[in-house]
Amino acid sequence: MDKDIIVSWMEAGMIQVPNLLMQKYKQIGLDEKELALLLHILSFIEAGNEFPTPEQLAGRMTINSSECSGLLRKLVQMQILSIEEGLSEDGIRFEKYSLSSLWARLADELKFDKKQNGLKHTLLEEH
Amino acid sequence: MDKDIIVSWMEAGMIQVPNLLMQKYKQIGLDEKELALLLHILSFIEAGNEFPTPEQLAGRMTINSSECSGLLRKLVQMQILSIEEGLSEDGIRFEKYSLSSLWARLADELKFDKKQNGLKHTLLEEH
Amino acid sequence: MDKDIIVSWMEAGMIQVPNLLMQKYKQIGLDEKELALLLHILSFIEAGNEFPTPEQLAGRMTINSSECSGLLRKLVQMQILSIEEGLSEDGIRFEKYSLSSLWARLADELKFDKKQNGLKHTLLEEH
Amino acid sequence: MDKDIIVSWMEAGMIQVPNLLMQKYKQIGLDEKELALLLHILSFIEAGNEFPTPEQLAGRMTINSSECSGLLRKLVQMQILSIEEGLSEDGIRFEKYSLSSLWARLADELKFDKKQNGLKHTLLEEH
User: Fold this and answer.
1) Residue C125: pLDDT band by 50, 70, 90 thresholds?
2) Tens digits of per-residue pLDDT, A40-60?
3) Residue C1: is its pLDDT beyond 60?
4) Which residues are in the DnaD N-terminal domain (chains A, B, C, D) (predicted)?
5) What's the complex ipTM?
6) What would the 3-class secondary structure string for chain A be?
7) Per the CB < 8 Å rule, is D1 touching A6?
8) Contact C19/D46 with Cβ under 8 angstroms?
9) Among A69, B53, B116, C38, which one is least packed by beta carbons within 10 Å?
10) Phi and psi (nearest 5°) for C95?
């Protein structure tokens, strides 16, 4: 039985959340519900479902599906979440969520921090 | 510059969040703020700070430090978060957060699901 | 450009390797080539290819495809790697690699260590 | 007992290995032993030991400690691994391994691939 538990645990898998996202989500205008929603999307994508419905997402959250739709819309408007079109092998068009704008936004924050730090060093060295 | 970004990104690191936690936190009585708080604790531990203060935690969240203290107390009472004592190499006593009860709780949920599924199979096979 | 790099980096993804595997692979009879081969299989599975060919695997390694076939056979015989049958949505049968026996083996090692430690404690307490 | 297993498993932790490293290590001149050695260093760093000895590293590998020292030297010469100096809180100087040159090298490979792809697209569009 013990072994089955480890096997199921490993097969359920993990999502990798950049520490930068944890440190910066507030700065880029997100709250904890929106953070959790993004993590749920990552978790569904990881499990092979690239376009979970608001019902599927809300089913794991303490919000209902219409509140969930509202948050998804807001994240798309904020250009943190985007919806991309794909073509399956059979030529069927499908939609999927992409978090690439989120990673790009975090990269921007990182560059800004580096520049600020550089500036600070320069100012300190001048004196 | 590009390379620096990747290096900083990798050095900032990632936290690993079990998909099971994403699927079950609601069932074990947590909401999105409490989930985020647990992830912040994981993120601080990962960065070497095993006992972040309510101020440090709240500083990254959309709640203030007294609300944060309240949530920490609640998580300890729910036996999801625990505070352990350690002894440093120099013999100094220190406190640290432990999430082992959370992992144990998720393991319980997993066993329960397996048992339910086993039961369902048995029932289906009887007919 | 910088941002693109982070986005590509995140989209290329990561594999999660249990520290236990790093600590125990030698004990369970594996060497570095076999460890690397298992990690390549994990990496292909993560990218959606659940049954990479010996050619695809060897293409990323410093061995040729016949040596790779030999190692795959050995890992299957050692019951560390297994090949499972699946049915696609269209009813087409397919094969895929599974690492569940590897996780089960590591869980065994962990239990054995715990028992040994327990035993040691008991022996020490007796004196 | 089952629960203990999951707790120990989670506490042993995981290392995150970029898929890019798996795809490119051969191209940047590494073999499977050297890859494994880098992963062991990551695993020790993750566990809080930033400067494992050749004996500690070789202890988990199928090589002896003098072969291990040789490989460490080679990785440093290849500028894939570097040794940095740090100062502890008590003002004691210490050495630690850094993998930042490895991440930078992988970022280079990624940029090169992107440029090649861009070139290919441009060439194809011209015809």
Assistant:
1) low
2) 999 999 888 999 999 999 999
3) no
4) 17-116
5) 0.85
6) CHHHHHHHHHHHCEEEEEHHHHHHCCCCCCCHHHHHHHHHHHHHHHCCCCCCCHHHHHHCCCCCHHHHHHHHHHHHHCCCCEEEEEECCCCCEEEEEECHHHHHHHHHHHHHHHHHHHHHHHHHHHC
7) no
8) yes
9) B116
10) -110, 150
Strand runs labelled E in B29-106:
82-87, 93-98
The tokens describing B77, both together, are 């009472």
Chain D closest CA to A5's CA: distance in Å? 7
CA–CA distances in Å: residue C24 to residues B15, C15, C72, C119, D37: 23, 18, 19, 21, 14
* pLDDT over 80 (residue C5): yes
Cα four-point dihedral sign D9, D15, D20, D21: negative
Cα D45 to chain centroid distance, Å, stands at 10
Give residue C11's domain range. Answer: 2-126
Q: Say how many domains are in chain C.
A: 1
pLDDT at A126 over 60: no
How far is residue D101's CA from residue D81's CA, in Å, rounded to a whole number? 6
Count of CB atoms situated within 10 Å of the CB of B71:
22
Calculate the alpha carbon distances from A24 to A35, B28, B71, C22 in Å: 11, 27, 21, 32
Tell me the residue length of chain D. 127
Confidence of residue D76 (pLDDT cuts 50, 70, 90): very high
Please, how many CA atoms are within 13 Å of residue A34, restricted to the half-sphere of its CB? 22
The torsion region of residue D55 among left (phi > 0), alpha (psi -120 to 50) and beta comes to alpha
**C14-31 per-position pLDDT tens digit:** 999 999 999 999 999 999
D interface test, pick of C62, C110, C117 with most D CB neighbours within 10 Å: C62
pLDDT tens per residue across span C62-109: 999 999 999 999 999 999 999 999 888 788 899 999 999 999 999 899
C-alpha angle with apex D116: D111 to D117, nearest 5 degrees? Answer: 95
The CATH number of residue C87's host domain is: 1.10.10.10
Contact D16 A16 (CB under 8 A): yes
User: With contacts defined as CB-CB under 8 Å, which chain C residues touch B16?
Assistant: 16
Residue D125, classified by CB atoms within 10 Å of its CB into exposed (0-12), middle (13-18) or buried (19+), is exposed
Model confidence, pTM: 0.87
∠A110-A120-D103 over CA atoms, to 5°? Answer: 35
CA distance C120 to chain A (A): 22
**Average pLDDT, whole number, for chain B?**
90
Alpha-carbon gap, residue C69 to A105, rounded angstroms = 44
For the four alpha carbons of C124, C125, D3 and D9, in that order, the dihedral sign comes to negative
- Predicted pLDDT of residue D102: 95
What is the DSSP annotation of C44-105?
Answer: HHHTT-SS--HHHHHTTSSS-HHHHHHHHHHHHHTTSSEEEEEE-TTS-EEEEEE-HHHHHH
Cβ distance D22 to C60 less than 8 Å, yes or no, reads yes
